[in-house]
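Two proteins, back to back. First:
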Amino acid sequence: MKNLVIIIGTVILGTIIVNTMILGDGNSLKTAASGIVEKGNAAIMENLTFGTSPS
């Protein structure tokens, strides 16, 4: 019985951590990663030229 309580508690704690750190809004890892990818894509697109021949 004690092992079952420990397992259930671990699962609940893991769920809370994932929801707050990774899937949460605002300062979550998902939001931070999205911002980094957005800035990276903007920097890459800024330096690319399409449809012109190199001189």
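And the second protein:
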Amino acid sequence: MKKILFANPFKEVRYVRFKKNGVFWVFCVVLFTGIILGAVSGKNADNDVMERLDFIFRTNYHIRCSEGMVAGFISSFGTLVLFLTALFLMGLSLWGGLVCWTVPFFKGYGYGLSVGYLYSAYGFYGVGYNLLMILPGMFLSAFILSAAAAEVLRNSVKMTKLFVRSAVKDDPPMQLAEYVQKMLFFLLLCALASVADTLMALCFSWIFKF
């Protein structure tokens, strides 16, 4: 009785929140690890390598500044849809939870690669380009993809449990519907991140002349 009366409810709430969001933060760490490794590799990357990867990471100055606003949004959104589609398909398989970490890692690695290259090639001018043109959209998309990867892992685990137990509360069609709804919500968030990415390019592209 004494335990119940003097228990700290805020501590319990913090524990529940950490337990619920712990997987998400793990994927954030994975993405940040990719950024660090990419930044180290980016110092030795040449212009040809960056041009080949631009269709995925959209870090090229000319691509961001020469396209119109609509075309820029479509290009940015299409890149995020590519990553989100890969995660969505992983979540529909039993083994998807084992490899879903590769998507946030690859996203982080690509960003780190571009940052390392920009700093190596243009110094603080490149850092300014990254902070104003790339980082805002990247910051949003990083959290979105990490949250989506966490949801993929949860759904993959739920699918695995369907094969090892047959509880009444397990409803595969409802579980799939909930998963699709959550991924559609992440798709909407990706669109908002692409809007932010496009606006940054529109507002600050005039500052940089490479």
